[in-house]
Amino acid sequence: MRDTVGHPQRRRVRLGHAVRQEPNEHAEKVFPSLGDWHTLPSAITNPTFPVTGLHNLVQRVPPVVAKPTKEPAVFALNWLSATGSGILLAAILSGLVMGISIPHIFKIYGRPSSRCVSRC
Question: Would you say the pTM of this structure is higher than 0.70?
Fold first, then answer.
């Protein structure tokens, strides 16, 4: 069939007309028994440290909360998603693409740090 202009008429498909499945159900079929796979990478890439002298010393009291609760003071060192980590990785990969050896790359990137340490 053709429309009024002469183009072939497109077949209309309703969204979701195919098999309806919950996203989690589909993931379990593709990746069975993953368990708690995300806890190990999270422990490596986002270590947490309680702040000494402040952790659980502050209390939240009504009317902010229903019953008094201690407030944790925890520092999360999320180094993998930090901006500098991506920049360093891109700089190392760029050096490798340009044909520079890994020891020479670190020697080049270490020069500004050594100058700062010697002057500070």
Answer: no
